[in-house]
Specification:
It is a single chain. The protein is elongated. Helices cover 36% and strands 29% of the residues.
């Protein structure tokens, strides 16, 4: 029996609703299997496809591990969770929803800090003045480190955020944050401002393929059928060729 094409889609929240609407518009009826709260499903009319209902961060991790062939998740999740994401994944199709920016935000009271260069100056002088390193609260540890390194900022410490990141400076848990925002309103409500060159990534939901998954002929046929429904005017020949080659 041919192993199925495993497609991970969000299990809850706005991404789940938008993903369901996307599939419905393409005539792809997603149905859960078994109990009402089952985390597995199928697509009616397309054989050899198995749906896995997961959270957006889980989808990115499973794509990175090669445990699923395809998934819907934010680009921010892919870049954060998948090492060497550019060579291990394919951002197949931007989906037009789930928009957010990953940004560097500092207290509005830091009137002289407007750019990343200004922040570098603050970081360099922070330890002599305060006896500790500058602290950054974030859930985006990989993305933050890469971006800060690109701006030559090294003397800081990351505080992993487990809750509402935007509140960290007000509570004294961190000096500034790296977080996602859609409108910036929540940041402003918490007395924060985005640096002029502090937009790290403009993200949206993508259909993402794992190059590390086991791609056989059956999975490629099922993928081609799905893509033909989702984006009938686009050619995916190059993608299918890449995925048809052994990983590595």
């Amino acid at each position: 029996m041919t192993a199925p094409l495993v497609v991970a889609i969000p299990s809850k929240g706005r991404l789940q609703k938008d993903s369901a609407a996307l599939f419905a518009r393409a005539g792809l009826e997603v149905a859960q299997q078994g109990a009402e709260r089952s985390y597995r499903g199928v697509i009616a009319g397309i054989d050899d496809v198995e749906i896995a209902f997961l959270s957006a961060p889980e989808i990115a991790r499973e794509i990175g591990a090669g445990a699923v062939h395809l998934g819907i998740t934010g680009r921010d999740q892919v870049e954060e969770s998948v090492p060497d994401f550019a060579t291990r994944t394919d951002l197949v199709l931007p989906l037009g929803f789930g928009h957010c920016d990953v940004v560097v935000a500092v207290p509005e009271a830091w009137i002289d800090v407007v750019t990343m260069e200004d922040l570098d100056d603050v970081a360099a002088g922070f330890r002599p003045r305060h006896g500790r390193r500058l602290t950054v609260a974030t859930k985006y540890i990989t993305i933050t480190r890469r971006f800060f390194a690109g701006h030559g900022i090294a003397d800081y410490r990351i505080v992993e955020s487990l809750g509402a990141t935007e509140g960290a400076p007000a509570t004294g848990a961190a000096d500034l944050i790296v977080d996602i925002t859609s409108t910036g309103a929540t940041l402003r409500d918490n007395g924060l401002k985005i640096l002029a060159d502090g937009v790290i990534l403009k993200s949206e939901a993508h259909l993402v393929a794992s190059r590390d998954a086991d791609w056989g002929a059956g999975q490629l046929v099922a993928l081609q059928t799905m893509l033909g429904r989702l984006a009938p005017k686009r050619s995916f020949r190059a993608l299918l060729g890449r995925l048809g080659k052994p990983a590595g």
